[in-house]
C-alpha cells in the first residue's frame, strides 16, 4: 500500500524548525533537494504498490534520499539512521515535515529500498532528473560547446563512453578456501537434518579436514605441490559428504528447505568445477564460481597493473556534453564492450533527437563494425584510422589531442564515483541490490554535479559584471567549485 501526496515537495520555509534553529537555505543538501523532481518521481514510484491494503510504505523521498546520503558518505545502516536523526538538513532532504529527534525508519528497511529501486527504475529516475534540470544552465563537458556542430549535418554534441569494474567485497578467491567453505556448509546441512529428524550423524572427519586446511592456511611459503595436495584432500572430503546428502534425499520423511537445496546445488557445481581444474591442471573454467555466499560474481580480467583480475560487476558508463553520467550496460559476466557502442548511440538519439557529432572512446570500441556504423550516420569517432599510420597535419594533430583530452572526463567520472560514491567497493550481498547500489553511485554523482553546476553558473554570472572576466578562464571557476 502506498499513499501518494502530490504536495509533498515543499521549500525550506515550510520545514518545521524548532525554536532557536535557523537553517541555511544555501546549504548543499538544500540545493541538492532542489535538483530532484520528487513529485514526478513519486508518481511513478506509487505504481509499484498496486494493493490498497496493508501497512503504508515509506515515501519515495525518504527511500531515495536516504540511499543517496548513504552513498555520499558510506554510512552503515545503523549509522545512517542516527546521522539522519541528528542532522536537520538530512531530515529536510528525505522529506520529513519537520525536525524530529527520533529515527525515521529501522535500518533493515534500507535493503527493501534497494530491492524496490532496481537499476532500471534508477535509470529512469536519472533521466527524469536530467530532464528536470535545464541543460543550458550546466557547464559543458570537456570544453565542448553543445551548440557547435557540423554545418553539413544535424549531428551535435559529444558522447564519451568507457567501461570499468565495480569490485565486490568478498575474500580473495582461493581454491582451498572455497572447498573448505563448501565442506563446512555440507556439514552444517547434515547437522540440521540429523538434529531435526533424530538421525545419527555420519562420520565426516571434520576435525581432520579442518586440520588439513589449517596446515596450508598457516603455511608461510606455499609451493604449488602443497597447494595441489591440499586441494586434493578437500575434494575428497566434499566427495565423501555428498553421498550422505543423496541418501537423506531419498528418504520420504525428510524434507529439505529451499535454501538448503539451493546451497547443495551450488556446492555440487563448485565441486565439479574444482575437480575439472584439478584433473586437467588448469586454473580457469567457464562460469567459474568464486564465492559461495555470492555465486553470481565472476572474475573480470581488466589487465590493470594494480589488479589484473577484479571480482565484481562490469559496467559501461557514458557522459554527454551536459556532463550527466549514464549507466549504459551492467553485467556480472565478462563481455566485449565494443557491442555496447551502437546501443549507447541509439539511446543518445532517442534523448536528444539527433546523433552526436563525435564519439570519444578507446581502442577496443573502434572495430570495423562500429566504424562503419558511425560513418553511416555522420559521426566522427576518435582515434587513428585503420591501416598503415600516415603523417597527420597540424589540424589533425590538434583535433586528436583535443579528443584525448576530452575523453579523460569519463575516467574522471570513474575515479570520482569510486572514491566518493561507493563504486570502488560494493558491499551489498544480493545481485539485485548490487545492481541498485551501482546505479545509486552514478545517480548520487549526478545529483552532486547538478548542485555544483548551478553554483558554477551563479559564479559565471557574477564574474560577467566585471571587464576582467574576459581574461578569466571558465575552467578556473569550475575547478574552484569542484
State the helix count: 16
Give the total of domains. Answer: 3
- The CATH topology of the largest domain is given as Nucleotidyltransferase, domain 5
Order of helices and strands: HHHHHHHEHHHHEEEHEHEHHH
Shape: globular
CATH architecture heading of the largest domain:
2-Layer Sandwich
Q: Specify the CATH class of the largest domain.
A: Alpha Beta
Total beta strands: 6
Distance between the termini: 41 Å
The whole-number mean of residue pLDDT values reads: 87
Q: What Rg is obtained from the alpha carbons, in whole angstroms?
A: 27 Å
Q: Give the biggest sheet.
A: 6 strands, mixed
Low-confidence stretches: 141-152
Assess the beta-strand content as a share of residues: 5-15%
**Helix percentage:** 40-55%
Please state the structural category: alpha/beta
CATH homologous superfamily designation of the largest domain: Ribonuclease H-like superfamily/Ribonuclease H
Q: Care to describe what's here?
A:
The chain is of the alpha/beta class and 482 residues long. It folds into 3 domains: 12-117, no CATH class; 121-170 and 298-481, 2-Layer Sandwich (Nucleotidyltransferase, domain 5); 175-280, no CATH class. The protein is 50% helix and 8% strand. It has 16 helices and 6 strands. The protein has helices spanning 28-34, 38-45, 60-73, 77-86, 88-93, 109-116, 119-132, 175-197, 206-217, 224-249, 258-280, 341-352, 368-376, 394-420, 431-463, 474-481, and strands at residues 158-167, 298-301, 309-320, 325-331, 358-360, 380-381. Strands 1, 2, 3, 4, 5 and 6 form a 6-stranded mixed beta sheet that branches. A hairpin with a 7-residue loop joins strand 2 (298-301) and strand 3. Helix 8 runs antiparallel to helix 9, helix 9 runs antiparallel to helix 10 and helix 15 (431-463) crosses helix 16. The longest helix has 33 residues, at 431-463. The radius of gyration is 27 Å and the shape is globular. It starts with 27 loop residues before the first helix and ends with a helix.
Amino acid at each position: 500500500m502506498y499513499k501518494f501526496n502530490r504536495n509533498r515537495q515543499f521549500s525550506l520555509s515550510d520545514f518545521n524548525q524548532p525554536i532557536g534553529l535557523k537553517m541555511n537555505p544555501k546549504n548543499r543538501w538544500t540545493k541538492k533537494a532542489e535538483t530532484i523532481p520528487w513529485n514526478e518521481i513519486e508518481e511513478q514510484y506509487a505504481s509499484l504498490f498496486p494493493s490498497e491494503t496493508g501497512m503504508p510504505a515509506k515515501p519515495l523521498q525518504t527511500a531515495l534520499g536516504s540511499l543517496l546520503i548513504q552513498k555520499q558518505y558510506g554510512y552503515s545502516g545503523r549509522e545512517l539512521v542516527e546521522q539522519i536523526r541528528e542532522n536537520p538538513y538530512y531530515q529536510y532532504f528525505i522529506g520529513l515535515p519537520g525536525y524530529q529527534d527520533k529515527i525515521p525508519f529501522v535500518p533493515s528497511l534500507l535493503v527493501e529500498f534497494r530491492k524496490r529501486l532496481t537499476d532500471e527504475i534508477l535509470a529512469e529516475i536519472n533521466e527524469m532528473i536530467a530532464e528536470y534540470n535545464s541543460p543550458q544552465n550546466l557547464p559543458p563537458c570537456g570544453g565542448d560547446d553543445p551548440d557547435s556542430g557540423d554545418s553539413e549535418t544535424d549531428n551535435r554534441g559529444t558522447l564519451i563512453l568507457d567501461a570499468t569494474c565495480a569490485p565486490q567485497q568478498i575474500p580473495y578467491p582461493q581454491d582451498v578456501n572455497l572447498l573448505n567453505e563448501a565442506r563446512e556448509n555440507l556439514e552444517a546441512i547434515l547437522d540440521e537434518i540429523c538434529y531435526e529428524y533424530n538421525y545419527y550423524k555420519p562420520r565426516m572427519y571434520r576435525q581432520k579436514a579442518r586440520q588439513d586446511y589449517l596446515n596450508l592456511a598457516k603455511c608461510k611459503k606455499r609451493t604449488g605441490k602443497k597447494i595441489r595436495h591440499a586441494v586434493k584432500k578437500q575434494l575428497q572430503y566434499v566427495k565423501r559428504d555428498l553421498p550422505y546428502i543423496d541418501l537423506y534425499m531419498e528418504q520420504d520423511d525428510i524434507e529439505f528447505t529451499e535454501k538448503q537445496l539451493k546451497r547443495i546445488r551450488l556446492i555440487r557445481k563448485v565441486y565439479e568445477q574444482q575437480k575439472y581444474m584439478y584433473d586437467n591442471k588448469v586454473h580457469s573454467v567457464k562460469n567459474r564460481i568464486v564465492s559461495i555466499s555470492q555465486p553470481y560474481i565472476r572474475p573480470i580480467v581488466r589487465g590493470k597493473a594494480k589488479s589484473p583480475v577484479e571480482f565484481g560487476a562490469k559496467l559501461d558508463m557514458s557522459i554527454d556534453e551536459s556532463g550527466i553520467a549514464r549507466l549504459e550496460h551492467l553485467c556480472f559476466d565478462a563481455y566485449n564492450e565494443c557491442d555496447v557502442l551502437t546501443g549507447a548511440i541509439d539511446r543518445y538519439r532517442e534523448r536528444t533527437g539527433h546523433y552526436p557529432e563525435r564519439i570519444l572512446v578507446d581502442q577496443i570500441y573502434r572495430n570495423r563494425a562500429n566504424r562503419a556504423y558511425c560513418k553511416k550516420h555522420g559521426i566522427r569517432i576518435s582515434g587513428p584510422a585503420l591501416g598503415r599510420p600516415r603523417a597527420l597535419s597540424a589540424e589533425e594533430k590538434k583535433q586528436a589531442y583535443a579528443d584525448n583530452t576530452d575523453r579523460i572526463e569519463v575516467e574522471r567520472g570513474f575515479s570520482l564515483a569510486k572514491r566518493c560514491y561507493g563504486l570502488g567497493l560494493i558491499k551489498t550481498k544480493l545481485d539485485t541490490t548490487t545492481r541498485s547500489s551501482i546505479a545509486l553511485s552514478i545517480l548520487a554523482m549526478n545529483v552532486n554535479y547538478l548542485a555544483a553546476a548551478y553554483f558554477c553558473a551563479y559564479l559565471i554570472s557574477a564574474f560577467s559584471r566585471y571587464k576582467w572576466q574576459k581574461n578569466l578562464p571558465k575552467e578556473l571557476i569550475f575547478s574552484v567549485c569542484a
